[in-house]
From TrEMBL:
GO terms for molecular function: metal ion binding; oxidoreductase activity. It comes from the Eukaryota. This is Tyrosinase copper-binding domain-containing protein. Pfam families: Tyrosinase. PROSITE patterns: TYROSINASE_2 (PS00498). It comes from Fusarium oxysporum Fo47. The lineage of its organism: Eukaryota, Fungi, Dikarya, Ascomycota, Pezizomycotina. PANTHER family: TYROSINASE FAMILY MEMBER, TYROSINASE-LIKE PROTEIN TYR-1-RELATED. Residues 103-114 form the Tyrosinase copper-binding domain. Keywords: Copper, Metal-binding.
Length: 244
């Protein structure tokens, strides 16, 4: 995790590789996210960066290094298109939402994500129930469509965490589990809690050239994970892939 995860090349110069770079640095930078909404997901963070002028307000959501670890350990491969296999041909379970929990390291990974989340809470004095708030209407705060929440449902810390049921009935919510001390567990010394002082890390900066938004894509329409690829058409008519 200390550096860039190496992806085994397949010898095809057209095969792109994922964003498994500087994973530890991105974990560090995400702790400087100014509020829970932008800390929690990439879409909200991207909107925050744009609304605050781009370069000087660059940030990282916890979702980014989280995703990078999944790809680094699981991944998928399509020759000439995309290679997220650290070991070519391995195609481990961690790269697919529906199979990730089959890999025992899934639980270690998410224990570290929970630890990172708690470190952000400590730094920003958001450990008590009610201290985490979602900025309503922001990108990333609506359901993309699943069996529990229809597409477009506004999500917040009181949204039910289906299928985790309370002993007395109903589902747990984020409000119920905000303070891990009330859940009777804690974390010992870790790699992200050296100082616990906001401003300790200096995030990199980079200009935003342009933004394109795609709407009306529902996860409920697809079985399992899927990848959206984006292309631009050049003046000479050629189409070039710009991201996924």
């Amino acid at each position: 995790m200390d550096g860039t995860v190496q992806i085994t090349p397949d010898g095809d110069p057209n095969t792109r590789i994922p964003d498994t770079y500087s994973v530890f640095s991105r974990f560090q930078i995400c702790l400087e996210a100014p509020n829970y909404t932008v800390f929690s997901n990439k879409a909200s963070m991207a909107q925050y960066i744009v609304e605050h002028g781009g370069r000087l307000h660059y940030g990282v959501a916890l979702e980014e290094p989280h995703n990078a670890i999944h790809l680094a350990l699981g991944g998928f491969y399509q020759k000439g298109i995309y290679n997220a296999d650290p070991i070519l041909g391995a195609s481990g379970d961690m790269g697919e939402n529906e199979t990730a929990a089959f890999d025992p390291i899934f639980y270690l990974h998410h224990a570290f994500i929970d630890y990172t989340f708690w470190q952000w809470q400590l730094r920003h004095d958001c450990t008590a129930a009610g201290s985490l708030t979602v900025e309503a209407g922001k990108d990333g705060t609506f359901s993309m469509g699943d069996p529990t929440f229809p597409k477009g449902t506004a999500l917040d810390t009181n949204s039910p965490l289906d299928p985790f049921e309370k002993p007395g009935g109903g589902f747990y919510t984020s409000e119920d589990v905000t303070d891990i001390k009330k859940l009777e567990y804690s974390y010992g010394p870790g790699s992200l809690d050296v100082d616990n002082d906001p401003g300790r890390y200096t995030p990199p900066t980079g200009p935003i050239a342009s933004i394109a938004r795609v709407h009306n894509i529902s996860r409920a329409d697809y079985a399992g994970s899927f990848v959206i690829r984006t292309h631009v058409e050049l003046p000479d008519g050629r189409k070039v892939e710009v991201g996924r």
